[in-house]
Amino acid sequence: MAKTQEPCKIQTIDGVGMSREKIIELTRSHVEIMKSGELPLADDVFRIPVTNYFDPDRWEAEMDLIFKRLPLV
Length: 73
Known about the structure:
Layout: E1 9-10, E2 18-19, H1 20-36, H2 51-54, H3 56-67
Antiparallel strand pairs: 1-2
């Protein structure tokens, strides 16, 4: 009996996953943007909560996800 493969989800700090299909869609979109030579701009300034920079739990989660998940060379 063949095993069904679960959709690929990319883990993120805030627990929101991104499917393989979404990653492919975004990659294709970025390739088209690069080919066009135009840079799309946001309508307004994007605000990031200051706690994202000073929260020790978030820091530890980012270190685990980025640097401790796979061996770095």
